[in-house]
Model the fold of this input.
Amino acid sequence: MPQIYASLTVDLNAIVANYRLLKERHAAHHVAAVVKADAYGLGMIPVARRLSQEGCHTFFVATLEEALTLRTAMPDATIYVFQGIGKGEADEFIGQAIRPVLNSMEQVAWWREAVRDKTAHAALHVDTGMCRLGLDGREVGQIDDPEQLVQDCQLVLLMSHLACASTPEHPLNEEQLALFNEVRSVFPMLATSFANSAGHFLAEGFHGDMGRPGCSLYGISPNTSLPNPMQHVVTLKGPILQLRHITQEQPVGYGATAMARPGMVLATVGLGYADGIHRIAGGEGLHGYIGEHKVPLMGRISMDMTCYDVSDVPESLLADEPYVTLIGAQQGVDTVAEICHTIGYEVFTRLGARVKRVYV
Ligand SMILES: *Cc1c(COP(=O)(O)O)cnc(C)c1O
Done:
């Protein structure tokens, strides 16, 4: 193991604190965890294990493959797959007790056929205004015997997904709620799930019987125009590979887009766009931190490295702490995302596999 390496420290206790806050906010105090995309890049299994110690036993992933991975670690968990079943996949779901989210009449038909005389459960997804997945209002209207459908498919959950929950004043929220309530009246026997992270911060009518947060568990703000109520979870650090004392003006990095001046001290840090540092952040004001010292990025972001101006950092600190922190307490994921013209979700899910995950 090399002495110094790029690391992503995940504070599992902070995830737990965020889970508790979401649960407290939720009208029914019942909250599942969305751990798709490897728990937004942070590590699905360690995150799910820790949350299960906290009494979270229901998890949502995007694909069957993710569900199978989670199942090996969590034999008793309730696992839902957002993308539902592909043709011929139902038996694999049934065999592993994985619950599909049924998104179309086609998936409903495959599932109905496969689960005859077997025990299995599923969720039904209705689209209430996002045009992504789920039955639309017309399809729901064409179901002539909802009770029979629930029985045949062994449905246990009715869900829909909010498109604009992070913008509370957006009129689509109320429209989606009204439509969801209509569909609820067709399926009064089903438990409901409506709120993503941001939905927990809308009125209670949006919560349903079970919350379904992802991003806010991981510290991403549910509403970036308000102060972030979530605890910060991730610290991303890159190792200083080399220090260079500049004696004459010289260009830095590809394209020679930045100039180092005499007297500057530059640090070459082992984190680049292959590690998920969006290349666009070069020249957009992304800084790193060494202790409390803000260190500006210099020049372009390379695949594996980036240079920082560490002239103002005391030498003793550079020797003791040969790392630059890119995401951390001083510069949270939402700030980094804004600099990169994106959202925290994309920053996290693009973090490279070679960055060592450390769990505390
Ligand atoms: C990803 C996802 C969630 C979680 O959303 P966050 O905004 O991360 O809380 C919930 N429901 C569905 C259908 C999703 O795809």
Residues 38 and 231 are 20 Å apart (CA to CA).
